[in-house]
Write a structure and sequence with these properties.
The protein is an alpha/beta fold and 222 residues long. It contains nine helices and eight strands. The longest helix has 24 residues. It has a five-stranded parallel sheet with strand order 2-3-1-4-8, with helices on both faces. The protein has a three-stranded antiparallel sheet with strand order 6-5-7. The structure holds adenosine monophosphate. Adenosine monophosphate binds next to helix 2 and helix 3.
């Protein structure tokens, strides 16, 4: 059996990493793991973890590393992650990246940074809609639902995330530059980082992401 494949999708909030991670995961058959989705699930199920994470999320801050690491490592032990997975929104600190490296000993790891300038982010996020049932991401302008408030994929309820309010987005961007940008450097210095221009059309971003995958992953999926 070949080594598990782990793709790490990075980018500022609103860069498109969630949307693209879903598309790439469907295309190459790896599980899509979003730590933000896992936290939102815990919050809607009113778990202890959800209660502890809620305040940090709503104020645009990162949830403390130890809570994230336990939750993530627990999730990637599930059978659907055995051949590999795409990480969306993790790691977000160098401590998380180091813990992941230790954990992934022997895996084939590929990191990608989807780049979008800060000026574009606030507008992009202002119209973002999320499905309560399937996690699908739409946009009032760029990917409007056929029926207002109804997910085009599963007919679930679309809503706007509380932390997508413009003031909170500014805080999230500051957190991104301070704590997550060094994670991009971490993977660059290890020679496993691809950079993709997130200002292209969603289809072109997707094509660039697929083209940038390690050659051995592409060979194996043919
Ligand atoms: P996202 O859906 O990826 O934008 O994440 C939403 C929020 O969840 C973030 O603003 C953080 O508060 C929290 N979160 C998600 N992933 C992480 C992580 N890897 N480390 C710390 N906090 C996280």
């Amino acid at each position: 059996m070949s080594a598990p494949k782990v793709a790490i999708f990075m980018g500022a909030p609103g860069a498109g990493k969630g949307t693209q991670a879903v598309r790439v995961s469907e295309s190459i058959g790896l599980a899509h793991i979003s730590t933000g989705d896992l936290f939102r699930e815990n919050i809607s199920n009113d778990t202890d973890l959800g209660k502890r994470a809620k305040g940090f999320m709503e104020s645009g801050q990162l949830v403390p590393d130890e809570l994230v690491l336990d939750m993530l490592f627990d999730r990637v032990q599930q059978p659907d992650c055995q051949s590999g997975y795409i990480l969306d929104g993790f790691p977000r600190t160098v401590v998380q990246a180091e813990a992941l490296t230790e954990r992934l000993n022997g895996a084939s790891v590929h990191a990608v940074d989807i780049q979008v300038p800060d000026e574009v982010i606030v507008d992009r996020i202002a119209g973002r809609l999320l499905c309560r049932s399937c996690g699908n991401i739409q946009h009032t302008e760029f990917d409007p639902p056929e029926t207002e408030g109804v997910c085009s994929k599963c007919s679930g309820e679309l809503y706007q995330r509380k932390d997508d309010a413009p003031d909170t987005v500014k805080d999230r961007l500051a957190v991104y530059h301070e704590q997550t940008a060094p994670v991009v450097d971490y993977y660059h210095s290890r020679g496993i980082l691809a950079r993709v221009d997130g200002m292209q059309s969603p289809d072109s971003v997707f094509q660039s992401l697929i083209q940038g995958l390690p050659e051995e992953w592409k060979r194996e999926s043919v």
